[in-house]
Specification:
This is ATP-binding protein. By secondary structure, this protein is α+β, with helices and mostly antiparallel strands. The chain has helices spanning 32-35, 43-55, 66-93, 123-138, 141-151, 158-161, 163-171, and strands at residues 9-13, 24-30, 102-108, 112-122, 174-182, 189-199. The two termini are 26 Å apart.
Amino acid sequence: MASPTSSTSESFGQFASDLQKENLCVKIDFPVELVKQRKFWPNSNLSAKFVSEYISIFFPADNNRSDQLRQRTEITDAARYITNELLENAFKFSCTRAKQPVQMCLYHYSNRLVITVTNTAHTNNIKSFRSLIHDLTTLDLTELYVERLEKNLDHKNAYSSGLGFITILINYNTKLGWKIEQSSPESDCFLVTTMVQLLYD
């Protein structure tokens, strides 16, 4: 994959653009007024817990079937971690001057759960984010994980560390994709949609 370049709208990685409305099961908007408040950020964990409990209804399990119980636990635990990671990033790095809420959507299919989180990002962060996407889609993930750990990046550089994304790709049966859009030519904020497809098989 070539290194990302600027345009009005770009997609990277394994971004599925054919999601069906009938598969949409959850849609939540987090108002920008709340997202701007640091005390609101821990709510990402509460929202992730809700997601894990909600999707468990799609996996009825017989208490005597250890395989069913194991599958449900693995999927709900993965969904909770992934959702929390995506929302944490979205809350922390949303553009403070933007008016758009952070939006989370869940799409349930027979073979996968699709989680999308859309947030704004200041143009100053977009260059490093594009570079991160390039690394995630072209480099060996295990080596990249070790490299990022060794750098011991501080909080200011967390947006470009990508440790959460790398963990999602290494530890779970997932596909990641991103879409970056500039809302208007005069705006210094971009819309960033991160998509994680959690495969059931």
